[in-house]
Amino acid sequence: MEFTQILFEKKGPVRILTLNRPDIRNVITGPEIIEEIVAAVHQVQNDPGARALVITGAGSAFSAGGDVKEMARGEGMFAGTPEKIADNYRAGIQRIPRALHALDVPAIAAVNGPAIGAGCDLACMCDVRMASETAKFGETFAALGLVPGDGGAYFLPRAVGASRAAELSFTARVFDAFEALEMGLVSRVTPPADLMRRALELAEAIAARPGPTLRMTKRLLRMARTASLTEVLDASAAFQGQCHHLPEHKDAVEAFLNRKK
Fold first, then answer.
1. CATH classification of the domain holding 223
2. Is 61 left (phi over 0), alpha (psi -120 to 50) or beta?
3. From CA 106, how far away is CA 117, in angstroms rounded?
4. What is the CATH number of the domain that holds 56?
5. How many CB atoms lie within 10 A of CB 219?
6. CA geometry: angle at 252 spanning 249 and 253, to 5°?
7. Are residues 190 and 150 both part of a single domain?
8. Co-location of 191 and 243 in the same domain
């Protein structure tokens, strides 16, 4: 499909998805941008050559989350009865967490600026988060009299732990990149000019590993959030059996033995 709300680029085995509405701080409640994000994620999932995905934002913001002006007017996805609004969420923005949660390719959020509300949750949907020194984060729904409507109640506790997630959700406070690093929400903070270079370096380091292995490893990590140890061990054995027959495994073992020689 033709993208107008995002940029979607290929760089070898790395895919780059850039929210491209800097004029409205990359809000993600419009149907067009939701459709394009979901379509791009599906493309990555279905592309055997894709080994890493980087998500970032154009301009000064990663994403300001929901369109508060539309909320005030009761328009778009915020229009209608409570039942209609619930349906709008399910058929709209909630498609993004479903798509990213089903993605087997490792995903990196390169948070270039404020990631607020649904923008914070979008970052939490990724496997790894890196932040510019200018980034800010906030699970700010309660400040608007709302609950996290796009999966934040699922993703944020898994990123920072239940107690910290509760504090951030109840207070709705905004915090900077260095506090995000301290609490483990992001794994590194970089100067603004270095963010994408560092994110792509990480993506390329990930992409240097065999694609099937990366996908199976991510499935195990995702499964381990809710499954029992026995279930994870059983799946690990099944995946390992497949890995031992991969040509990439045989090449890696041969290269390792040659280095030892």
1. 1.10.12
2. beta
3. 23
4. 3.90.226.10
5. 13
6. 85
7. yes
8. no
Sign of the CA dihedral 164, 166, 171, 177? positive
pLDDT given for residue 1 in this prediction? 83
Angle, CA of 13, 14 and 15, to the nearest 5°? 120
Total number of domains constituting the chain: 2
DSSP H or E run through 9: strand 6-11
pLDDT digits (tens, 9 = 90+) for 87-133: 999 999 999 999 999 999 999 999 999 999 999 999 999 999 999 99
Q: What is the span of the domain harbouring residue 51?
A: 6-207
Pair of tokens at residue 8? 């979607």
Residue 1 lies in a domain: no
Of the candidates 100, 117, 111, the residue with the CA atom closest to the CA atom of residue 64: 117
Name the residue among 32, 40, 185, 159 with its Cα closest to residue 100.
40
